[in-house]
Amino acid sequence: MNKKKSKKGLVVLLLILAILIAVVPFLMLKDAEFGGSDDAAGGAIEEIQGGEYEPWFTPILESYLGGEIPGEIESLIFCVQTGIGVGILAFFMGRFYERKKWMKDE
């Protein structure tokens, strides 16, 4: 009974810690602006060149759609790319793991 009580207390403590880790940064960084790496690179190039940065080309989907891609669609495409990459990586890691098991059996 005592072991269950201590595990329950640990779980509650870890849940509180997880909530604090998620909430505290939002409270500490109220007026922070988060920009992407594209914005940072454009700003750095403008500082070096002394003029306005003009990209060499426009993304394929932006030229096809006739304007900028909405943020939600951009995020969706990024997530799909990530899912495909993780799937491929997991497939090959599984194959290597199974091959290792098969070699042990022989």
From TrEMBL:
<keyword id="KW-0406">Ion transport</keyword>
<comment type="subunit">
    <text>Forms an energy-coupling factor (ECF) transporter complex composed of an ATP-binding protein (A component, CbiO), a transmembrane protein (T component, CbiQ) and 2 possible substrate-capture proteins (S components, CbiM and CbiN) of unknown stoichimetry.</text>
</comment>
<keyword id="KW-0472">Membrane</keyword>
<keyword id="KW-0812">Transmembrane</keyword>
<keyword id="KW-0170">Cobalt</keyword>
<feature type="transmembrane region" description="Helical">
    <location>
        <begin position="9"/>
        <end position="29"/>
    </location>
</feature>
<keyword id="KW-0813">Transport</keyword>
<keyword id="KW-1003">Cell membrane</keyword>
<dbReference type="Pfam" id="PF02553">
    <property type="entry name" value="CbiN"/>
</dbReference>
<comment type="function">
    <text>Part of the energy-coupling factor (ECF) transporter complex CbiMNOQ involved in cobalt import.</text>
</comment>
<keyword id="KW-1133">Transmembrane helix</keyword>
<dbReference type="GO" id="GO:0005886">
    <property type="term" value="C:plasma membrane"/>
</dbReference>
<dbReference type="GO" id="GO:0009236">
    <property type="term" value="P:cobalamin biosynthetic process"/>
</dbReference>
<protein>
    <recommendedName>
        <fullName>Cobalt transport protein CbiN</fullName>
    </recommendedName>
</protein>
<feature type="transmembrane region" description="Helical">
    <location>
        <begin position="75"/>
        <end position="94"/>
    </location>
</feature>
<keyword id="KW-0169">Cobalamin biosynthesis</keyword>
<comment type="similarity">
    <text>Belongs to the CbiN family.</text>
</comment>
<dbReference type="GO" id="GO:0015087">
    <property type="term" value="F:cobalt ion transmembrane transporter activity"/>
</dbReference>
<dbReference type="InterPro" id="IPR003705">
    <property type="entry name" value="CbiN"/>
</dbReference>
<keyword id="KW-0171">Cobalt transport</keyword>
<comment type="pathway">
    <text>Cofactor biosynthesis; adenosylcobalamin biosynthesis.</text>
</comment>
